[in-house]
Amino acid sequence: MPVIRMEVEIDAPQQICFDLARSIDSHMESTARTRERAIGGVTSGLIRLGESVTWEAVHFGVKQRLTAKITEMEEPWFFVDEMVQGAFKRFYHKHEFIPLGEKKTRMIDTFDYTSPLGVLGKLADVLILERYMRRFLLERNLYLKEKAERQARGCGE
């Protein structure tokens, strides 16, 4: 059961960061490398508490689908998405937004997951999956940082 935790400081207000992190459109932009797209549930705009989204993406050369539901939310402080159906045995993904003054935010991303396939899944974690997920989340977080900072400067969405 790996837990990946990342922190990034963003020169943008808490609300901007919170909204971009739960934006279906921003998620698709940030994951263009894996051709991730929303195909069910909430497919654009901001996802809210109790809502779900089904993603389709290509990982490891295989087209996959995953449905996640927003199970906890306290705007603009945090939200949690959990896998309802998909390739993992389970995952719990918490997104936190801590203001550092009026115009700066610390975004904390905690991804706690269990791979399928028991011992084989644990071996896959050690060999490739944990590193792959860490890179995937880092790319997404850096994209959100750049977009939030542009938005905070008034340079468009």
Shape, please?
A: globular
pLDDT average, as an integer?
92
Low-confidence stretches: none
Write out the strand line-up for the largest beta sheet, numbering strands in chain order: 1-7-6-5-4-3-2
Order of helices and strands: EHHEEEEEEH
Strand fraction? 35-45%
Residues in helix, %: 25-40%
Total DSSP E strands: 7
- List the total number of helices: 3
Query: Based on helices, strands and strand pairing, what is the structural class?
Result: alpha+beta
Description:
The protein is α+β, with helices and mostly antiparallel strands and 157 residues long. 32% of the residues lie in helices and 39% in strands. The protein has helices spanning 14-21, 24-30, 118-152; strands spanning 3-10, 37-41, 52-59, 62-74, 78-85, 90-99, 105-114. A seven-stranded antiparallel β-sheet has the order 1-7-6-5-4-3-2, covered by helices on one side. Strand 6 (90-99) and strand 7 (105-114) form a beta hairpin. The N and C termini lie far apart (36 Å). The mean pLDDT is 92.
